[in-house]
Amino acid sequence: MLSRFPHLRQDFAASLVVFLVAVPLCLGVAVASGVPAELGLVTGIVGGLVTGLMRGSSIQVSGPAAGMTVLVFEAVHEFGLPALGVIVLLAGALQIALGALGWGRWFRAISVSVVEGMLAGIGLVIIAGQLYAAAGVEAPASGLDKITGLPGAVVEVAGSGSALVSLAVGAGTIAVIVLWQRLPKRVRTVPGALAAVVLATAATQLFALPVATVEVAGLLDAVQPPGLDAFGKLGDVALLGTVLAFALIASAESLFSAAAVDRLHDGPRTQYDKELIAQGTGNAVCGVLGALPMTAVIVRSSANVQAGARTKASRVLHGVWLLLFAALLPAALGLIPLAALAGILVHAGWKLIPLRAVVSLWRAHRGEALILVVTAVAIVAVNMFEGVLIGLALSVAKAAWDASHIRVAVVDEGVGPVRARLSGNATFLRLPKILDTLESLPHDRPVELDLSGLHHLDHACRTALENWSERHSAMLAEPVRPPEPEPSPL
Residue 4: what pLDDT? Predict the structure, then answer.
């Protein structure tokens, strides 16, 4: 056996670590998404047994992700739980098509600022929403209302003993996760999130605390394949837009995770198109089962690498352990306090906010920092899909502006011709600046126009420069003298 699978021992041990990391996250993401907790486990199982077997990335692990929580919650709230399976199924089919067409590598071209802004916006909405859940009170629907409603929620919680107890369980969960990282390495073999849930569950049962726990329906009862009525909603343009959002955001998050995981190990590199097909196949299966969408998850993937995984066997085995847990110990789920899962999600949401990246970007690239912040604010204020579109539009606009950078240097020695040198990229976006500078030159003296420093000269600028040269030359006995040859546009 070991001769055929030389890394089985390492992969077996790693699979147990990933399983322990995945359990509380699968449950927390499902509850935060407004769906039965078992559906989070179903997605984790599919991520291990289906996506885990496919080619693409051999180390990263897939499952329900905090980054999709906001979008899933909005979809369930707007279209209903039965339609979720249709949305996830079509999103998976779209991912498969994009991978088959070789578009996987193009997702790497998405601005990092947009992705980090997306994660920051999601993190803010998750934190705000799960603070309500930790206190056991109902959260508003929109992200902006969740944040603006927090002061009122504080007043409401302050007058309720049961809400304060629930909030204390959630706060204690966060404290255990944070402090767990300071314990000896041998103790940290048990993931902090799992330890926090076990301790919170034990305290709740031991002291009979009045807190809500996970509602258990059973794995088979929770799986509800979409019916024909759900497919009848495909005529809704808003639903199709949600499908597109699921596919694009899940793909971007998975492939960015793949790039990050590749930096953590020295094994085979990710094949992006095949990984996109694998993610799409997993989502298609999740859609058929009516479960949550999946992405590659950096938390589980990094845990897999750190635990010594060498092949895809570790992530497949983690799916087996999730299946056994859900099938053999369903009653254990009903003991877990919802406040503990909310605490896990608050911590996960905080980790999505790239505070250090914002500071470093502001110092070096303020435009990118602005894109990050605007994307995050737009997601909170509007919604997930439109917020990402706003971020992408800003990123494209900034790239176009940067690409049209132009410098006009004028040398006027008081006598003889005036020398004007253009360098950079002359596009229509900077045409006003170019013409303003040239038209401010003396009208009664010849001008030597040097275009040798230009990397690109578009048609609009070429035409404008020719027209200006003709007008200026008409005023002089000695015309404008552009050097030869002019650069060819790229």
Answer: 61
